Amino acid sequence: MFTCAVGWYIEHKLLHACQVYSFYKQKNVYFHHDSTFRQKDFDVVLSYYAENPASVARYISYLRNISTLRKLDLRIIVYNKNSKVNNTSLKEVLKADHIHLLPNIGREGATYLNHIIENYDTVANHTLFSQAGVEGITNTGLVKWYSDRLENQFNISVGYMPLVSNDMISKYDCGFHQSGNYRRLVELWGMLEQTLCPPGGQAVSKHKY
Asked: Which of 19, 139, 179, 199 has the most CB atoms in a 10 Å sphere around its CB?
C-alpha cells in the first residue's frame, strides 16, 4: 500500500512522493540544539509501528549496502509510533543510529513532517522517507526497480526522486493527461517552484490508499 506526503515550499524544496522519496537541500551546515542531529549527507527516516523487526532490519541492511549510499555519511533514523515497543531493543535489532518515540497520530506523512520541523536547520542534504514496511523488499535484496534508482539514477545532484516502479509514473503536461485535466497540479507547481508550470511534461507518481 502506498501513501503520499503533502509537498510544500518554505525555505527549501520538499516535493510529494509515494511510498518513499528523496529530499535535497542545498545549504551550509547548521547546528541544532540536539547535537545528534547535525547535518548529514544522507538520512534514511523510517516510520515504524508494528512491522516485523527482522524484515525492517533486512531493509535497512539492503540500504546500507547500496554502493552510492555507502559513499555518503549514511544515518538511519527510526520513529517508533508504538509505545508498547521498547526503543532500546528495537534499536539493537534494527541496528539503527537513532530511534525516537512518537505518539501514534497521523500516518507516515505526519512522521516525516515532524522530522523536518524538529530538525529544520539540520535536515540532511538528502533524506529518504519511507514506511518501515514497503513493497520492493525480498529475502535476497531490493527488487530491480528499487535498487536501480538508488544504484544507477541517484547522485548528489538529485533534487527529487520518487522510489517507485516505472508503471506508477505518468507524464502530465501542466495538469493535462489522457485521463483528464488536473488543474491542481499547476497550482502545486507554482507553490513549490515559485514559477509558472513549464510546458513539455512533468513526471507524476501515482498513489493508492
From this structure: 19
